[in-house]
Write a structure and sequence with these properties.
Number of helices: 20
Shape: globular
Helix content: 40-55%
Distance between the termini: 32 Å
Number of strands: 19
Oligomer: single chain
Radius of gyration: 22 Å
Strand content: 15-25%
């Protein structure tokens, strides 16, 4: 797991170091910076790296790379490149570097996995690219002197450039050229409509996705809320991990997630860890979480609190965890989606929109909260092949008789007890009890007079005291129009509610 930053123009090592430091969090990274006389500079905060400390150079030093991500097919690509290149490390980053030597910007079309990368070459100049789902973040902007700066997080750029932009998911850019799409979310025709066929295909795809994320990973654990998605991922991982499997759950005292996670962990025989949270520590963490999250969207902040504490717990035991992220978006898990029942075309469009927006909603939450703890999170449901399969499935397989993720539940029947398989969907923040706790706190902490007086930057009244509370922390560092434009907006907050915030 890495954080990257750089400058095209006047490469200032002190400035790059400052950008990296803004993303250093607990300082659990090694910092490395490289600059070229021509005015280019790359920097990387890196934990681990298989001997491939970044920025990483090719054999003759004419290309340099900094990358955040995991390339799942790097071994196959390495075999292909071995006859033409000398490898000095076992890192997937070096594979990408040599692939760029041979294929140029088209190299990213061959990468399987999440990534955000920057490559500088004497002849090619700067090249940036990001994976199609936006699992790994990448932002950029131009300063008043015309230098182009880029970084993994917004906080590295807000003090450096007047306008921060996101490199869109599935896009690449080469200095002197235009931003172009090299990949898009799959849009295959619906071809899987029979339940038996769908169960077999999804079971196979999920097992392959989990195995891919376990390969060469060392100790791996699983987030385990006791809900359908995390339980199924943990159950599949249990089949492929020969030794101990650690699972992690957090929640308020007496919360549903803690109870259900204990049961699933016992069923699977995992080494289970849990942390019972208090209102005081949840409230105390809000400012830091909002700052790290780079968002004040209420649903995202609620989920981020749970992810923050779960990541802290997991990082005490393993460097990598698996998560069930993405299943709700692909297979129709959210409560509000009941309004689309019976309207297949509208449901398909909504699920596609939710998946396309993941980069600044759920994925941003997971990325930022895990980064604080130096933890890497891998998400089998967002494997490219599994995403494509989900889009090939008919909407009737995803929601049936008001039941979300119906086809996922049928797969889960092969692994889990019925009480877990058919447990009613609860958002992470609800199942942990964190959402209601924060809502009650906001009601006490924000005076009614303040809510009546305060307005959003666009002059609108806030939709709730909770929304204002998070904004009050967010605006101190990020309350600019350009950063607000980057912020994802959640569609659901409480069960059965279609959330529309003022921001």
């Amino acid at each position: 797991m890495s954080r990257i930053a750089g400058i095209a123009g006047q490469a200032d090592r002190v400035r790059i170091a400052r950008m990296l430091e803004a993303m250093a969090h607990r300082g659990r990274y090694g910092q490395h910076i490289w600059t070229a006389p021509a005015g280019w500079g790359l920097g990387c905060l890196q934990r681990g790296g298989d001997g491939g400390l970044q920025p990483l150079a090719n054999e003759d030093g004419t290309l340099w790379l900094a990358m955040d991500g995991e390339i799942h097919n790097h071994r196959a690509l390495r075999e292909e490149l071995a006859g033409r290149h000398t490898f000095r490390t076992e890192s997937d980053a070096e594979v990408v570097l040599h692939l760029f030597e041979d294929y140029g910007p088209a190299c990213v079309e061959r990468l399987d996995g999440p990534f955000a990368l920057a490559i500088w070459g004497e002849e090619t100049g700067l090249f940036l690219a990001r994976d199609v789902l936006g699992v790994k973040p990448l932002y950029w902007g131009e300063d008043e002197e015309g230098n182009l700066l880029f970084a993994s997080e917004i906080k590295a750029l807000v003090a450096e450039v007047p306008r921060v932009q996101a490199l869109p998911p599935g896009h690449r850019w080469r200095v002197g050229g235009a931003v172009e799409a090299f990949d898009r979310l799959p849009a295959p025709p619906v071809s899987v409509t029979e339940a038996g066929e769908a169960v077999k295909a999804l079971d196979r795809a999920l097992n392959e996705a989990v195995q891919k994320r376990l390969a060469g990973a060392g100790p791996v654990g699983c987030f385990l809320s006791g809900g359908l998605d995390s339980s199924l991922v943990a159950a599949v991982a249990r089949r492929h991990i020969g030794g101990d499997l650690h699972t992690f759950a957090v929640g308020m005292e007496g919360s549903a997630d803690l109870e259900h996670a204990r049961q699933v962990a016992a069923d699977l025989g995992t080494i289970h860890h849990e942390r019972v949270l208090t209102e005081a520590e949840v409230v105390e963490a809000i400012p830091r979480i909002v700052d790290a999250l780079e968002s004040c969207d209420p649903a995202l902040v609620r989920g981020a609190v749970a992810t923050y504490f779960a990541s802290a717990l997991a990082a005490e035991h393993v460097p990598i965890v698996l998560s069930g992220e993405g299943a709700d978006e692909l297979f129709g898990g959210y409560h509000y989606l009941a309004e689309f029942d019976g309207a297949d075309r509208a449901l398909s469009a909504e699920l596609r929109a939710l998946t396309a927006a993941l980069h600044n909603t759920g994925l941003q939450r997971v990325d930022r909260m895990a980064a604080i703890q130096g933890l890497e999170v891998r998400m089998p449901f967002l494997d490219r092949s599994l995403v494509e399969l989900a889009f090939r499935m008919g909407p009737g397989l995803k929601r049936r008789k008001g039941e979300g993720k119906w086809i996922v539940r049928l797969v889960a029947e092969r692994y889990l007890r019925p009480g877990t398989v058919w447990r009613t969907k609860e958002k992470f923040a609800i199942g942990t009890g964190i959402g209601p706790t924060l809502e009650r706190y906001a009601q006490r902490a924000v005076p009614g007079a303040v809510l009546a007086r305060e307005r959003t930057p666009r002059g609108l009244p806030f939709a709730s005291k909770e929304e204002y509370l998070y904004w009050s922390f967010f605006r101190r560092r990020y309350g600019r129009e350009d950063v607000l434009a980057l912020m994802g907006r959640s569609r659901s907050l409480n069960p059965g509610q279609r959330w529309v915030g003022a921001l």
